[in-house]
């Protein structure tokens, strides 16, 4: 006889943790099935150079309602970002430098044009269908850049500023970026401030552990799920090891790039299947570099495809050396084992820098993520996501990749996990009475 629970939640990242916690607090019995031997998913505090470092999702903000509510609830503290130093930017084949204010003067006109219609496209960011965005939904980031008819210098300034979140300008649709900025009042600076500066003391590990400590869900680690079948009266979940579990409903919180590895019955709507087959194109990385000495703080930007390191920033000093974090648009373009190549890439901006060590978690090679954060391909954000938000019989979906707001972020994961738990709870109690 299979085990039986009220709800099975698949995946113990931020979406799964919130869903499991919320469901158990409503009195439902929950099994939380996680493929890896740890919780956290694409947030991961790992030991690197003897230090606890964030190898995945890190930055949070008080303007993110779900994140901030958990931070307050668990009395966690956010760490202010370091003071910004000089900025270097690779544009039209040359490295330019200036103060933060000078970089703003260089980049603001092009970014303002790029995001000009964000609020008009998404006047109610919580409802992506409020306006007909069929035309924008077909537009790639590259199309949008081309439409602005920029000089080679301005084009690289714009692309460099976007490079920290982009893999390939031609692969991503423009709508998700417009939606992200619309969520922050149409102000791209607020969007960037939210996305990349404030971190949690004790790391994202402290956050997810605090959430899971409030849950009575049975956590089963090292339990990859291979199939999920809704037979009309229950859902049967089968693990790769051949164990089965039955539940009233299931919430799948997997990254889009691994959803295709789970056999789902009945078949998904064609639009959802197409999104899963086309995959999230973000094959990017986050590289930690330890550089010799206490280097004056700096940041640097380079367009994706024109340099192996795309957004670089000193993070903090460590025993007389400097931690630098580098967002790498194309994880295949550099290896943490090739310190020489990393040093050469950094010396493009800071000529005398000496690299001591480097490390990352390779999210693209990891079979339980198969990629980084989500930036949707054209055609999906406003069109396909509404399909996957609807329950597929007793099968529900959640996760940052398909969130209604703050797509691709920890906040999006939490928001969608909470929404799925709400819907499953309503359906569960409706079926009982
Ligand atoms: C390098 C990097 C940097 C980032 N930086 C930021 C940032 O600074 N701020 C921010 O807000 N966001 C950031 N993000 C994005 C953010 O980390 C993610 O969007 C978010 O954590 C995803 O949460 P999730 O619960 O939706 O999915 P995941 O965290 O991916 O959780 C899904 C879980 O499902 C499990 N799983 C997969 N397949 C199976 C299976 N078959 N059976 C059972 N379990 C399975 C996985 O192991 C995983 O634990 C970053 C992401 C990366 C990769």
Automatic annotation (TrEMBL):
Keyword Transport assigned: no
Gene Ontology MF terms in the entry: monoamine oxidase activity
Coiled coil location: none
Entry EC number(s): 1.4.3.-
Keyword Flavoprotein: yes
InterPro entries reported for this sequence: Amino_oxidase, FAD/NAD-bd_sf, Flavin_amine_oxidase, Flavin_MAO
Chain positions recorded as FAD binding sites: 34-35, 225
Taxonomic superkingdom: Eukaryota
Name the record gives this protein: Amine oxidase
């Amino acid at each position: 006889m299979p085990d039986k629970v009220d709800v099975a939640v698949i995946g113990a990242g931020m979406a799964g943790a919130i869903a499991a916690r919320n469901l158990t607090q409503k009195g439902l019995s929950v099994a939380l099935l996680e493929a890896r031997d740890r919780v956290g998913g694409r947030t991961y505090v790992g030991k690197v150079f003897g230090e606890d470092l964030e190898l995945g999702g890190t930055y949070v903000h008080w303007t993110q309602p779900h994140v901030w509510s958990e931070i307050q609830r668990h009395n966690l503290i956010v760490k202010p970002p370091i003071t910004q130093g000089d900025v270097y930017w690779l544009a039209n084949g040359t490295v330019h430098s200036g103060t933060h204010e000078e970089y703003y003067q260089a980049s603001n006109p092009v970014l303002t044009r790029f995001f000009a219609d964000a609020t008009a496209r998404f006047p109610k960011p919580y409802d992506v269908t409020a306006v007909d965005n069929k035309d924008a939904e077909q537009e790639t980031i590259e199309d949008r850049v081309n439409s602005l008819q920029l000089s080679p210098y301005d084009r690289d300034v714009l692309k460099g500023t976007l490079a920290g979140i982009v893999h390939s300008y031609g692969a991503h649709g423009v709508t998700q970026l417009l939606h992200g900025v619309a969520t922050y009042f149409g102000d791209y600076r607020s969007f960037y401030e939210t996305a990349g500066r404030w971190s949690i003391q004790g790391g994202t590990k402290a956050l997810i552990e605090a959430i899971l400590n409030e849950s009575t869900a049975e956590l089963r680690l090292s339990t990859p799920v291979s199939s999920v079948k809704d037979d009309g009266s229950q859902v049967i979940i089968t693990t790769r090891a051949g164990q089965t579990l039955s539940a009233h409903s299931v919430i799948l919180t997997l990254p889009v790039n691994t959803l295709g590895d789970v056999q789902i019955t009945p078949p998904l709507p064609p639009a959802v299947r197409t999104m899963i087959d086309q995959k999230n194109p973000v094959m990017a990385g986050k590289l930690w570099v330890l550089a010799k000495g206490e280097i004056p703080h700096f940041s640097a930007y380079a367009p994706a495809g024109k340099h192996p390191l795309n957004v670089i920033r000193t993070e903090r000093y460590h025993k007389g050396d400097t931690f630098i974090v580098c967002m790498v648009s194309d994880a295949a373009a550099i290896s943490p084992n090739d310190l020489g190549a990393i040093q050469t890439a950094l010396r493009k901006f800071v000529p005398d820098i000496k690299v001591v060590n480097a490390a990352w978690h390779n999210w693209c090679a990891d079979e339980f993520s198969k990629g980084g954060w989500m930036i949707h391909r054209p055609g999906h954000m406003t069109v396909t996501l509404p399909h996957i938000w609807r329950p597929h019989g007793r099968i529900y979906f959640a996760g940052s990749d398909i969130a209604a707001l703050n797509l691709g972020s920890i906040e999006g994961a939490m928001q969608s996990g909470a929404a799925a738990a709400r819907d499953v709870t309503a359906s569960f109690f409706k079926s009982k009475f």
